[in-house]
Amino acid sequence: MKFRFFEIFDYVLLISVSLLVFIGIMFVYSSGVNSSAVSVSNEYIKQIIFACTGFLLMIFFAVFDYRKLERLTPIAFILLFLLLIYTKFFGRYVNGARSWIGIGNFGVQPSEFGKIIYIMFLARYLNRSAETAPLKRFFISALITAGPVLLILAQPDLGTASVYIPIFIGMIFTAGLNTSYILFIILTGTLTVIFTVLPVWQTSILQKPIIILSVFTNPRLRLIVSATLIIITMIGALGLLFYRNKYYYFITRFSGSTTLALGASILGGKVLKDYQIKRLIVFLNPYTDPLGSGWNIIQSKIAIGSGGITGQGFLKGTQSHYRFLPQQSTDFIFSILSEEAGFVGSLFVFILFFIILMRIIFIMYTTKNTFGYYIAGGILVMFFFHFVVNVGMVMGIMPITGIPFLFLSYGGSSLWTAMWATGLLMSIRFRRLDF
């Protein structure tokens, strides 16, 4: 029995994750050291506690048969809804969003844990709906996704909400849904972001009016355009119904996507604050607001650039120790790592993450259980999206969205979520031959 217990663990995952967590603790400690080489923060102590409890969480879910969780996921999903609603009205504000609940100094972020619950619930539906009509399967999957996303956006927490969308796309792709549905979602999402940021881009970066953009600022003109798009969509749908012509198909898809994006952008403009929207575009030219929204990117790029090949040395970084970097223990932890460990240290972290992603793909292709396959697919996308967006954000080539670097960034909620996901992956791998 003892030998079988140790067989449960995937040691490739375990070693890679352990190294990342250890590196994270090191640089969380470094982020709390000031220019006089004095530690002014106890975040590293909390991170050690988070890591220890996170490993216990990982062990529990690795040992537990994940298949038994399938029947519990509807209850968990309902509880997630209730928690997100409670958080919206009674949660505490952190960084401009009411997304935390807790007592005293202890707080958790339900939307972080919600990612795993959402993945398992969607995996359950996709597993049980294999015989359902593809379009119906797509719409129900989209409704499952829309619930938590809208509640998280209402907080408003754009960064966390944005993680759910690629997870949704990745999971319906692994479920074999029509690629055209996925392209429709990508097109609608892209247009929504563009339509939402264009008015702020016009006033903050371009700083001069453009007549065509008045459709996003003039309510009457916006109503006319929306009505026109709806009519075009209806005509295209009728043409497709009666003539089955591919031109009507493209007209319907594009006009329908544009209509939805325009409506979503109106909602986004009302829910999101201007500074949140500005973060989505200021990376294009951070010097338009160097002391405001552009400050984070400018200081992060300076830190990364000053690291060079081998870095300035542990605890010898200047940007972090002179407190130029904001959120340096959380969202911008990679900036400190790059400054003090350089390209070599960053490459080592990249390799560890690459190993984890490759291991998840291996688990996906070796498991015979479809429920486990979908869960692993969702976790793969979640890990990949967090990695790409956070690294891109601190390098100044992607918008600042407040997405942490999993396993490295300070914070119990994100670390526990990542460890929970790792435990599930180990459980799936160990039972990969069981249906």
Query: What is the tally of helical segments?
Result: 15
Strand order of the largest sheet: 1-2-3
Order of helices and strands: HHHHEEEHHHHHHHHHHH
Molecular shape:
globular
What share of the residues lie within helices? Answer: 55-70%
Gyration radius, to the nearest Å? 23 Å
> Which structural category fits the helices and strands?
mainly alpha
Distance between the termini: 22 Å
How does the major sheet shape up?
3 strands, antiparallel
Mean pLDDT: 86
Number of strands: 3
Poorly predicted residue ranges: none
**Beta strand %:** under 5%
Q: How many structural domains does the protein architecture include?
A: 1
Written overview of the protein:
The chain is mostly helical and 435 residues long. The protein has one domain (2-430). 69% of the residues lie in helices and 3% in strands. It has 15 helices and 3 strands. It has helices spanning 2-7, 11-31, 43-63, 73-90, 110-128, 134-153, 158-174, 179-206, 219-243, 246-271, 274-279, 295-307, 333-366, 370-394, 412-430, and strands at residues 92-94, 97-103, 106-108. The protein has a 3-stranded antiparallel β-sheet. A hairpin with a 2-residue loop joins β1 (92-94) and β2 (97-103). α6 packs antiparallel against α7, α7 (158-174) packs across α14 (370-394) and α9 runs antiparallel to α10 (246-271). The longest helix has 34 residues, at 333-366. The radius of gyration is 23 Å and the shape is globular. The chain starts with a helix and ends in a 5-residue tail after the last helix. The mean pLDDT is 86.
